[in-house]
């Protein structure tokens, strides 16, 4: 699969996940109950939530990212988000929600692999070092139930924002990496 | 002394003639017209249940010397109601703008103050020059999970009010309509129309933030629109147009991932290509015209037309 198709596939998967998460997040926030499922709920971001990788980025910095840095940022973020999400998945009380969460985790795992595939097809090394989270924010570490729910709220919100950022990232890459050219370059280097 | 005096509609107003005693002989005028004695209580002017029409310049003169003792500009109005505030990003990711208006006029000057807070950060809102009630905020960061909180406070001499909007960055993204919409017939294709348009010029980076489009079209003779969504490119060929019928066409735009659809573009009209009538002899023309007039509303040739024999009573 050429890099161009691989990027397109990753973009499509991102859009699919974004759509999936919209309904899943709504269901989960209803499961958490008020105030977490209220549209205007706008809590301060606690220090605990900072451990979840933030999609927020300076505009010029984001524009200036190299393809490698752009992909690596996505790869690291989803690898960590996946770990946090798996912790969530293990604690949910309702079977239906647990099923949907694990299905989503599987799809997110697919995205991580897809990003890795794009990086390899472009000749970039996968990010070294620990990709998983230092310590999941939602685990028993949360001193009380409300803070645990707050962690879950920010995790879902960050994940939603990452998916939206990634759609833009892969859009940019699609434009910069036309399928044919890349294949030739790889062949020339004896792949 | 002279100054501006603001009073609410319906208020009772008492004006003192400067330093003149209550029982001094005075004359009051409003916008140059003497005020009837019935409005006076001694030298005081009493205005009951003032209305907007009683706004104006009020003068008080000492009875005999006609010295001006008091002057005021009475402005009758109302305190501001809760303002209507709208924020929108039509040039994402550059920034967004907020615009506002009062639901009802106050008839006196109002002063607006807007604050934009992102998390803990105060953001500058560059105001347009009056009378435009609008200001612009530049995004410093993108893809933020923290909501923006915009508070608009309106103050006038008679009161104060405010409103607050809280929103996510992606929720207010709404492009302007597509521009330069053009629709053309396709020669030798009686059922096709070629439509093209451009990204709204206010959308700064269609490369990184591509738009998708929604095209709607219908023949003028029908009310039902047909729609088609297009995620790539800025042109489309309609292939199912009714032959010879004038069409109205509009386009809308949306960021391919976030936000809401733009308003519809300006409508354009076009009629599919039709064959030029041939230069025939008179008799041929009559025959041709008769057959053309009966077939102009015929369904597309692919549809089977029932046989003459099958028609009841023919």
Automatic annotation (TrEMBL), chain A:
CC terms in the record's Gene Ontology section: CNTFR-CLCF1 complex; CRLF-CLCF1 complex; extracellular space
Subcellular location: Secreted
Keyword set, alphabetical order: Cytokine, Glycoprotein, Secreted, Signal
Keyword hit for Repressor: no
Domain of life: Eukaryota
GO MF, one annotated term: cytokine activity
One example of a Gene Ontology biological process annotation: positive regulation of B cell proliferation
UniProt-listed Pfam families: PRF
Keyword Secreted applies: yes
InterPro entries listed in its UniProt record: 4_helix_cytokine-like_core (IPR009079), PRF/CT (IPR010681)
Family: Belongs to the IL-6 superfamily.
Subunit structure comment from the entry: Forms a heteromeric complex with cardiotrophin-like cytokine CRLF1/CLF-1; the CRLF1-CLCF1 complex is a ligand for the ciliary neurotrophic factor receptor/CNTFR. The CRLF1-CLCF1 heterodimer binds SORL1 (via N-terminal ectodomain); within this complex, the interaction is mediated predominantly by the CRLF1 moiety. The tripartite signaling complex formed by CRLF1, CLCF1 and CNTFR also binds SORL1.
Function: In complex with CRLF1, forms a heterodimeric neurotropic cytokine that plays a crucial role during neuronal development. Also stimulates B-cells. Binds to and activates the ILST/gp130 receptor.
Name listed for the protein in its UniProt record: Cardiotrophin-like cytokine factor 1
